[in-house]
Amino acid sequence: MKKLTPLIIIAIFALTVTIVIVATFMLKHKEVPEGEFKNMIGAKYAGSMECKKCHERKYLEWATTLHPKMMQDAKANPLVIMGDFDTSSKIRTFSKEDVHYSIGNLFRQVYLKKAGDDYEVLPAAYDIISNKWEAFIDRQKKSWFKECAGCHATGVDPVKKTFKEAGVGCEACHGPGSNHVKAIAGYEIPTTINPQRMTSGSAAQICGSCHSRGKDKKSAHPYPVEYMTSRGLSNLYLHFDVADTKSNPDMFWPSGEGKYGYMQYIDWKASQHAQAGITCTSCHTVHQSLTTFQTRLAGDQQCKSCHTTTENRMAHKIHTFGSCIDCHMARTMTGAGGGLTGRSHTFKFISPELSLKKGGVKNQPNSCSGCHHHKDTPLEDLVEFLDAAKKTDMPLPYSAHKRPPVKK
């Protein structure tokens, strides 16, 4: 009997291995259910809380970023309102009780009021940096569903005037997730959009669907209605007329940079970064808020992680402390109150000479006048200083290299 024991053990082991192999083979080759378990066809929005059940860590990290705070329910949680409603204001013409949703929470906050089956964009924004109210340039009543909804909420239907979730949720980038939730183990991948598995250009279009301006080709909404449910599957340009300098010259500065907020994608498309394959996620994180602007590194460290050979020569001598962002990402995007807030993403240095040629900073911002130190410096002086800086030894006095006056 003792001689048989090893044989019995070997036989049991072999049988177990065989069962495991057969079971694995059968599971792998089990016929895949049709329809919703197989792909994204017919998928509906499930909500970010549904995603949290399996992707808790990603959800918790995403919850600290700017995207979920793009739109918040002020009735459910009044603490999300950052504006000062206690102090009287001639600019603010509405009360805290009027506010149903807040929009934004970094630089400024805009407010929505329930108006029938729509939401009205209230006509003043609160500047969080200066703690002051600023009036909109355009004071006309605006329908939120018509003008803004697609980029402030997830699962928006502008016809039915409904949305699944306030803020930019998981499905705003990964697509409607009901099929993904129901998919059997091993078949989840085709039921959702994963930008990391896409070409860089297609992945950037997902960001560009909100970080650009233009018109939906079918509905004329200023956000891509059809593309919202097919982000990552379709081509943004088939659904959306993205603004450009030829068709929409009023939306751009003479230098080519976008004049208004949320035009980063259009700027980037015109940049050398885009040509080199450097995309949004090369610099920005999506699920984590490592820095204020969700960049992978803080400030100029982000630029210098790639641009390691820049020398403090010629024009770069001016700012030996390093100011890549201030010079190559000038503030060119106009906020709702008229001031320049967002930064250019063409990454071009905009010379003060161009402002001089166009009749001043109001007609063309530049990289120098946006600095608080040079805010009031005459453009002619800035041009002269740059000319001198381009000389290898930066000779003094630089006024000796003055060029002829620019004809206006």
Short recap of the structure:
The chain is α+β, with helices and mostly antiparallel strands. The protein has helices at residues 4-28, 48-52, 56-62, 144-147, 170-174, 178-182, 200-208, 236-239, 264-269, 272-275, 280-283, 300-304, 324-328, 352-357, 379-389, and strands spanning 71-73, 101-103, 108-115, 118-121, 124-127, 132-135, 142-143, 153-154, 165-166, 214-216, 240-242, 331-334, 340-343. Strand 12 and strand 13 form a beta hairpin.
Features of the shown structure:
408 residues, alpha+beta, 7-stranded antiparallel beta sheet, 15 helices
How would you describe this structure to a colleague?
The protein is an alpha+beta fold and 408 residues long. It has two domains: 149 residues, no CATH class; 153 residues, no CATH class. The chain is 26% helix and 11% strand. The chain has 15 helices and 13 strands. The strands form four sheets. Strands 1, 2, 3, 4, 5, 6 and 7 form a seven-stranded antiparallel sheet that branches. Strands 8-9 form a two-stranded antiparallel sheet. A two-stranded antiparallel sheet has the order 10-11. A hairpin with a 5-residue loop joins strand 12 and strand 13. The radius of gyration is 27 Å and the shape is globular. The chain starts with a helix and ends in a 19-residue tail after the last helix.
